[in-house]
Amino acid sequence: MDPEVETFPPYPIRGVRARYFHQTSCPGDFADVTVDFEPWEEGLTFEVVGSATVEDHFRRDLPGFRAALVEGIREELAERVTDVPVALAVVLRHIRVHEVDSRDASFRMAGRVAVREALDRLQGPPPRPKRRRRP
């Protein structure tokens, strides 16, 4: 890839924590991950750092949860990053799994949340509403 061409991400975005909780009824949803978005070759690469921490007391389907996380990242990138090529390595630093409420859909949503958080860091948070003065 030509170094002059702008890509996503333009620089490393580290320590992106994405949490997805939805506990209003059964089944619930729970996913908690921390990832880094690193500039890489064109496309999307997923890595698990050797020192990654895993909070999973029951050793559930971690490979399936990781695949769902990547799927959510890909979906959100396809919707939100349309003006520049994606050249990204996603590095998993931490994953937390709930014994009952974690499922693939939870981690797919956490992947989407991670992309939103990374984009917020690049573009800045949305503007806050202004308070009205009392007369």
Describe the structure.
With 135 residues, the protein is an alpha+beta fold. The chain has a single domain, classed as Ribosomal Protein S5, domain 2 (2-Layer Sandwich), CATH 3.30.230.10. Helices cover 29% and strands 33% of the residues. The chain has two helices and four strands, in the order E-E-E-H-E-H. It has a four-stranded mixed sheet with strand order 1-2-4-3. The chain is globular. The mean pLDDT is 87. Pfam families: EFG_IV (PF03764).
Can you tag this structure with a few keywords?
Ribsml_uS5_D2-typ_fold_subgr, 4 strands, 135 residues, 29% helix, Ribosomal Protein S5, domain 2, Ribosomal_Su5_D2-typ_SF, Transl_elong_EFG/EF2_IV, 33% strand, alpha+beta, globular, 4-stranded mixed β-sheet
Short recap of the structure:
The chain has 2 helices and 4 strands.
Q: Give the averaged pLDDT, no decimals.
A: 87
Q: Domain count, please report it.
A: 1
Query: Which structural class matches the secondary elements?
Result: alpha+beta
Instruction: Please give the CATH architecture.
Output: 2-Layer Sandwich
The strand order across the widest sheet is 1-2-4-3
Which band does the percent of strand residues land in? 25-35%
The major sheet is characterized as:
4 strands, mixed
How many alpha or pi helices?
2
